[in-house]
Structures are given as C-alpha cells and as structure tokens.
Amino acid sequence: MQSIIQVENLSKVYKTGFQALKSVSLDIRKGEIFALLGPNGAGKTTLISIICGIVNPTSGRVTADGHDILRDYRQARAKIGLVPQELTTDAFESVWNTVTFSRGLFGKAANPAFIEKILKDLSLWDKKDSRIMRLSGGMKRRVMIAKAL
C-alpha cells in the first residue's frame, strides 16, 4: 500500500539550542489509522507542525502523497488537513457556512455535493443549519474534521 505521509530522519533544533526532534522516521500508509502519542515535550506538536508546513525542519525530509513539503509546498499542503487541539470556529455561524467558508480559504470552490457528503459521513447533516454554539463538544470536533477535509 502507498505511503500518504513519509518522514525520513527528521530533526529540529530551535535557535535556543533545544532539540525537539532527533532523526524521526515514520511511514503512514493510505487508509491507515495512526496515533501520535507521547509525554509533554516529546516533540509531537513540532512533528505535526513540520508535516503541515508551519515549522521548517533542521534536517530530514517529509512527503505528503509523494510531494516534498518544502520543494512541492502547494501540492503537499493540498493533501493535508489539520484539526487543531483548540476549537477554532465562529460560534454564531452555521455548520454549513463554516465548512463552506473554510474551503474558500484554501482556494476551493464551495462544492455543495461534496460538503453534503462530508456532513453526512460525519453524522452532521441534520445539524447543517445549526449554529456552532448550539452543538455538543463532540459535534464541534466533527465540524473541525469537516473543515479539514
């Protein structure tokens, strides 16, 4: 099965001299469910930030669906969706409008059929007209996943 995320000998040393990552390698295959676990300070956030193109590595290589995150930045970013730990949505907006707006931020057309499919797949279709502030914590997390997709 093909790799969707590949990390090879990734290291990150910050300007302060703190080494957040040292020669990390991993291979996440398409369709695989993957959990990144570790104690505080283990480098989880740094690794995710590098994969998403938010932080530059000191050394090593990351590819997303075969696209190098530094050399093929746009193609790699088009393959990555991040669901942050904190919920970042407009509480007064509807689920439908929130997901539609997020697509526009990444230069993607509204595509109502695709949004409908995602909302149905995430069991959010019956909440499409609900304001975010009226949703449970779990439903809000699903909205964040819909935005990332």
Brief write-up:
The protein is α+β, with helices and mostly antiparallel strands. 31% of the residues lie in helices and 20% in strands. It is built from 5 helices and 4 strands, in the order E-E-H-E-E-H-H-H-H.
Topology readout:
Blueprint: E1 3-13, E2 19-29, H1 44-51, E3 59-64, E4 67-68, H2 73-77, H3 95-105, H4 112-121, H5 137-148
Antiparallel strand pairs: 1-2, 1-3, 3-4
Helix pairs in contact: 3-5
Q: Can you describe what's shown?
A:
- The protein has 149 residues and is of the alpha+beta class.
- It has two domains: 75 residues, Rossmann fold (3-Layer(aba) Sandwich), CATH 3.40.50; 54 residues.
- It has five helices and four strands, in the order ββαββαααα.
- A four-stranded antiparallel sheet has the order 2-1-3-4.
- Strand 3 and strand 4 form a beta hairpin.
- The radius of gyration is 17 Å and the shape is globular.
